[in-house]
């Protein structure tokens, strides 16, 4: 349970936080560390970011926040998410996200910063942050869906399916769940067959021409989450979520 790093030419970073991959604050930092290690090893040519269980990621661990007094858990989660999302983006080699089931909140942050996305045919993507009294990861959702749809999803908390993202071109391939990891490794192997130096420079150059500074943009969003916690909206949203479960 936790974060597993499988080293190799195609490295795998695997989330495993039963029952729904709601990631605690320390888990986000562990994701960042695993990606940094994988990317730093000369033999690594691509990284597959995957998860065990019925869903890729349910976002932050709200129970952890509610059982921790003050703002320590919130601040730790904020910094952890920022570190994990940045580690996906800054990884020197391409990161392929393999998404099954639900991909919510922080899961969208990870996937939106990935270079390629492969998803199972049962995968859905959403930002329920407004219902939780929070904001964040619209920066990353905007890399997956058109602008007006991104706004609709933020305001209404409606999810979209893998097939919808495939139509937008932001999910490369949709596959039955049993073939998900295999499909992700297949495209990783295609990338691994290229000159590794050229691929690393390609990743660096593509990040350099991005029109949005994703790290600064996300930290800006997080400021509003902290404001909502100071005025009580965050706690109200988290309590409603836990009461409704």
Walk me through the topology.
Elements: E1 2-6, E2 10-16, E3 22-23, H1 25-40, E4 46-51, E5 59-60, H2 62-66, H3 72-90, E6 95-99, E7 102-104, H4 106-112, E8 116-120, E9 124-126, H5 138-141, H6 147-156, E10 160-161, H7 162-168, E11 173-175, H8 180-192, H9 196-208, H10 214-230, H11 233-244
Parallel strand pairs: 2-4, 3-5, 4-6, 6-8, 7-9, 8-11
Antiparallel strand pairs: 1-2, 9-10
Helix pairs in contact: 1-3, 3-4, 3-10
Family: Belongs to the enoyl-CoA hydratase/isomerase family.
Keywords: Lipid metabolism, Lyase
Protein name: Enoyl-CoA hydratase
Summarize the structure.
This is Enoyl-CoA hydratase. The protein has 245 residues and is α/β, with parallel strands linked by helices.
Protein architecture, described:
The chain has 245 residues and is of the alpha/beta class. The chain has one domain: 2-enoyl-CoA Hydratase, Chain A, domain 1, CATH 3.90.226. Helices cover 50% and strands 18% of the residues. It has 11 helices and 11 strands. A hairpin with a 3-residue loop joins strand 1 (2-6) and strand 2. Helix 3 (72-90) runs antiparallel to helix 10 (214-230).
* The first-level CATH class name: Alpha Beta
CATH fold naming: 2-enoyl-CoA Hydratase, Chain A, domain 1
Low-confidence stretches: none
On the 0 to 100 scale, the average pLDDT is 95
User: What's the number of extended β-strand segments?
Assistant: 11
SS-based class: alpha/beta
When the domains are counted, the total is: 1
Going by CATH, the architecture would be: Alpha-Beta Complex
- Number of alpha- plus pi-helical segments: 11
